[in-house]
User: Fold this.
Amino acid sequence: MKRFRHIVFLVLCLVAGCVVRGQLTIPGTTVSFRLDAEDWRYLRTFEMAEGGDVYLYCYVGQLVTDGEGDTVLPFLRIYVNDDYDGDLLDLVYERYSQEPYQFLNEYADGPGIPRSGGIGYDGVYTNPSDQKDYRFYMTYFADRGTMVEFRLETTKDTFEEMDFEFKDILSSLK
Assistant:
């Protein structure tokens, strides 16, 4: 069943690449979101060692450079786990313990929270490998027994440039 969902998701990604605006459904859920296929590219799907799959997209709509002149690839990462044993707050804590960050804002309604409910964060962290500061929107929700982390991220100094794009995607989550 898991392999079938991967195939369906890849087909949806390919179809989305042929249309201007693509409405995609997150595997294992009834939750969908919209991406502008001219600005976003599907990169790959990979399995997490602790369970679940990650679907990765990057922003290619225009060249984004940070204050140091480095090219930045803002991204969308969707972590999906249909075999998770805990509840939503357990997942939030587990993911936080793997990759700590500073909370700027926490919310339970508004853009990025699907009809089924969830919890969202606006946060920042410093990546130890490149010593750059990053900012993100991240929402967690459960739908049809599947736990999801939906994350939009870029460097802190390019976040304002990407904020409208990120909010547009978050507001499309249904």
Observations:
- The longest strand covers residues 133-143.
- Residues 1-20 have pLDDT under 50 and may be disordered.
